[in-house]
């Protein structure tokens, strides 16, 4: 897909453009209103189309639940192996489209690898994730950032003390959620490992607060996010934080999202996923 379209979508995704302005600019780049309309499904993705793990997988216990957060009860999707045992915990942090079917599927994928996985709905304080992803993006932009971070800190605490948890907890986050995974590493000393996928970096002054080991995934064609990497790495080295970073040169931002045909990069996604699971097992199961 034309890089101009990807850049425009990136500008829209964080909420800096409203839908009307986005569609107008998309029409200009695409060559007309009809072409813009045809591109919208590709840019938005289809969360149901790329389901990898069945909702009723016989090896899992998977359900919606609630846990106590900073702003009250937080809705979440919870999945764990059905076998009676204790497992490390993983907090899964969604993109700016909220807790949708894709993220629930990712949560089940992680659970199948031998983890207690939980994906909080960051939009719980405003009524939960709506069916309209554009509305979800708008609502994400209105959240109280500090309270949202504390809701995720509470998720770490919940998993750490869960009856089927070993007490070790990590996090995986994507896009907006990658930034939140970085913030969780800053704000939760109880976190053992964090895997932000192409996430906005924390302030350099906050990096010394990080106690968790980090695995950082970035897309080569992601100028907005990648501009923060040099300062982040410098701060990580200075603070002696345990980290490793991987750059997927031919990939776009959101390359792991297999519901989005415009962005999904199978080769990069599979390699990053292998590295992610290996890293989580190494840091949380030893």
Explain what you see.
This protein is an alpha/beta fold. It folds into two domains: 1-44, no CATH class; 56-284, Rossmann fold (3-Layer(aba) Sandwich). It has helices at residues 3-12, 19-30, 33-44, 101-112, 133-140, 145-160, 176-187, 223-226, 229-238, 266-284; strands spanning 60-69, 72-81, 87-93, 116-120, 165-174, 193-197, 213-221, 243-252. An eight-stranded mixed β-sheet has the order 1-2-4-3-5-6-7-8. The longest helix has 19 residues, at 266-284. The chain is globular. The model is unreliable at 34-40 and 44-50 (pLDDT under 50).
* 3D shape: globular
Residue share in helix = 40-55%
Walk across the major sheet and give the strand order. 1-2-4-3-5-6-7-8
What do the pLDDT scores average to? 89
So, CATH architecture of the largest domain?
3-Layer(aba) Sandwich
Tally of DSSP helical segments: 10
Quick overview of this protein structure:
Helix content is 40%, strand content 23%. It has 286 residues and is an alpha/beta fold.
Task: Compile the SSE list and pairings.
Elements lengths: L2 H10 L6 H12 L2 H12 L15 E10 L2 E10 L5 E7 L7 H12 L3 E5 L12 H8 L4 H16 L4 E10 L1 H12 L5 E5 L15 E9 L1 H4 L2 H10 L4 E10 L13 H19 L2
Parallel strand pairs: 3-4, 3-5, 5-6, 6-7, 7-8
Antiparallel strand pairs: 1-2, 2-4
Write out key terms for the chains shown.
alpha/beta; about 290 residues; 8 strands; 8-stranded mixed beta sheet
